[in-house]
Amino acid sequence: MGGKGGSHGLGPDLADPFRAKLMHTSLVKGEWGNPKCIPQKGIITYGLSPNRLKPLAGAVRAAVFNTFRRTRNQILYWGVPLLVGYQAMQWATERNEYLNSKAGRAEFGEEG
Hints:
With 112 residues, this protein is an all-alpha fold. The protein has helices at residues 12-15, 17-23, 50-53, 59-99, 102-108. 56% of the residues lie in helices and 0% in strands.
């Protein structure tokens, strides 16, 4: 019946009368890890931020929605000139085809 806990059925902290009394003093305010516990000295902890663990977490989803949002906000700045340029190219192509056709040569005459 020796050992740390005895036959009380209590944990090793409460079976020892000194530890049981120490648990209720003002110096120790709770179990290990309790936020009310006195800060320990000389303990070094290491951790990794979520950005180091998963550097591309959510990147694809963010890229899709950011692209949509940025395009929606900028469409008038590049959409209108794009349409004007397309119409100008279409007109120029049709005009070139007409000028190089039989009717265009007959109308404007062939120089040379």
